[in-house]
Design goal:
Helix content is 67%, strand content 0%. With 306 residues, the protein is mainly α. The protein has one domain (2-304). The chain is globular, with a radius of gyration of 19 Å. Keywords: Lyase, Membrane, Transmembrane, Transmembrane helix. It comes from Anoxybacteroides voinovskiense. Its main location: membrane. This is Formate hydrogenlyase subunit 4.
């Protein structure tokens, strides 16, 4: 358990670095080093935080609440092995709620300092999350129907042994529905641009403008961990091959290497999507997330009547 948490925490900046480096190469730029996110987190954690005089205790405790909530969600999402004593029936819903707790406190604290950009970012985040969270749940339910369980470890084991039929319509619908949700929840193009600071386009970045120092480092680190967990969830729901189902050391090492390789491949896919597509207008994002919900509902109906 503690090894899995340590791997999730330490591996998250690496995946962020892979995405940035891949985007830069696709745009004919050298780009930052793959290890740059580590340098950024260390730099911010060494600095003192500067808070507005109008800020309350919320601005102080929120970075810790967000970080702990995201890390706690990492206890339930399988990474390189399915052997986890923390899993229980319905932990799929708990993971979504833990993400929701982090989002709620982030949006609430963006209003704490009274800044206009923070309020704009939080209002956009809450409006989009009202559609993104049901879309995520429906996409997960569509996959859960294939195994008849809502326990993540049992779900991955069932998919590992039985698998999806790639040629069934429900597989393709659930795949694209989950991919849209992953792009939206990680705040990537075409839904959001994590590299911009333009007030007219930013959503998640707008809520972090009042943070600095170690508080900003914790918020950035938590966002990277959430991104890693969503990618891990996507991988093990649709490409679970190679995950360790026993405690054999050689199998675990091989599973970990394959897990990292699949993460890197999916990260490159996200970078490719960001490079090939422009950011869509904010008012069109609900339509994109709504299409994810429709795809998930169609996958559920097809799975029921197959």
């Amino acid at each position: 358990m503690f090894l899995q948490i340590a791997i999730v925490i330490l591996l998250a900046p690496f995946i962020q670095g892979v995405i940035k480096k891949t985007k830069a190469r696709m745009q004919n730029r050298i780009g930052p080093s793959i290890w740059q996110p580590y340098y950024d987190v260390i730099k911010f954690m060494k600095k003192d935080a500067v808070l507005s005089h109008h800020s309350s205790w919320l601005s102080i405790v929120t970075p810790y609440i967000v970080f702990v909530s995201i890390v706690t969600a990492g206890l339930f999402i399988p990474t390189y092995t399915v052997n986890n004593d923390w899993n229980f029936i319905g932990d799929v819903i708990l993971v979504v709620y833990l993400f929701g707790v982090a989002r709620f406190f982030t949006a609430l604290t963006a209003l704490d300092a009274g800044g206009s950009f923070g309020g704009m970012g939080s209002s956009r985040e809450m409006a989009l999350s009202a559609i993104a969270e049901p879309a995520l749940l429906l996409a997960l339910f569509a996959v859960c129907l294939s195994s008849g369980t809502m326990k993540l470890s049992d779900l991955v084991v069932s998919l590992l042994h039985n698998g999806w039929d790639w040629f069934t319509p429900s597989y393709g619908l659930a795949f694209f529905a989950m991919l849209i949700v992953v792009i939206a929840e990680t705040g990537r193009i075409p839904v959001d641009n994590p590299d911009t600071h333009l007030e007219l386009t930013m959503v998640h970045e707008g809520m972090l403008l009042e943070y600095s120092g170690r508080y900003l480092g914790l918020m950035m680190w938590a966002a990277q961990i959430k991104q890693l967990l969503l990618l891990s969830l996507f991988i093990h729901l649709f490409f679970p091959w190679g995950i360790a189902a026993s405690g054999d050391a050689s199998q675990i090492i091989l599973s970990f290497l394959l897990y990292v390789a699949k993460l890197v491949a999916l990260s490159m896919l996200l970078a490719f999507i960001e490079t090939m597509y422009a950011k869509i207008r904010l008012f069109k994002v609900p339509k994109l997330l709504g299409s994810s919900m429709i795809l998930s509902l169609m996958a559920i109906l097809l799975r029921v009547f197959e």
